[in-house]
Amino acid sequence: SVYRIYHQSFIHFFNRQSLIIREKRLRNSYYLPPEEWHKIIVQYYRAENKPWNKVNWIKVNDYGLLHLATHLYALRDVKVNNTKMYRQDLYELICKPFMQEKLARFGSYHSFADDVRLAINLAETEDSPNLVQMIRTCLIYATLISIATNVAPEILGALAQLGQFERARGYADLIQDAKKRSQAYRLIAEALLKRGERNSVHFILKKALESANSIEEKHERSIVLSELVQALVYAGEQEWAIDVAEQAAVLAEENRFEFIKADVLLESARAVALTQRYDRVQDLAMKALTVIEK
Question: What is the pLDDT of residues 180-190, one digit of tens each?
Fold first, then answer.
């Protein structure tokens, strides 16, 4: 089982050196110095002071894999023998064995990419930007993005259908192309609905809509939005579906390609029909017929 402190205020309690009780400032005997505990956690995972690329990551628990980079980043300004050694530690953590175990354990490069982003941010914000590490970590990140972007959205939908939701979402999060990313999220949501796993559907559809709205080409955006409408209806988000359908229709009417305009309007009308809001369906259908009859 995984346990976590429920309320953020409880965490703040441990991070405060003093407390005000009945208008008196008192020492907090339960104070946990963050810097000290970051060091303890880092040392715990560095078995026998081995370099990070020599650590047996298979034996490291999920917490270590997921949060070690964050602990190192928190220590970025701490000096040991007048050297900010934890900065180099974070750069060295970004290594192949660490990446491979995270991929094997969590099914995608998403978590490792988060660590790489921390390293990039660190390299950019050093007193003198660390150009060597900026180039190295940016190249690593670009490679991860390229791998994720080359995975077809349909494959991610299939992964979700097989019960590998986190793995599918991890790849989708890294896709740079907004259209492909939106399609991937939509297919993942549809797979979850087919499996009867509705808890994450709203969140994933929101990500799909955010991605769709970031598509620059209006005709592409209208197509992707119209494809989203049916998924929203099946998720029980009728009002949301109607809003998205109307958004797609507005974009479609601005489209100079008549066949795309008609397809978007018809696709939206078919999906909205499932909500039984026939006044909206009629409006969309009539607009589509007007385009077709031209």
Answer: 999 999 999 99
148: DSSP letter:
H
Structure tokens at 261: 């305009």
What is the pTM assigned to this prediction?
0.74
Report the C-alpha gap between 69 and 174 in whole angstroms. 19
Instruction: Report the 10 Å Cβ neighbour count for 181.
Output: 27
Distance CA(102)–CA(199), nearest Å, equals: 25
Token representation of residue 212: 């769709």
pLDDT in tens, 127-182: 888 999 999 999 999 999 999 989 999 999 999 999 999 999 999 999 999 999 99
148's CB contacts (< 8 A; 6+ apart) are 108, 109, 171, 172, 173, 174, 175, 176
Alpha-carbon gap, residue 169 to 258, rounded angstroms: 35
Tell the burial category of 168 from Cβ atoms under 10 Å away from its Cβ (0-12, 13-18, 19+): buried
Which DSSP category does 95 fall into?
S
Paired tokens of 281: 């369906």
Q: What pLDDT does residue 272 have?
A: 64
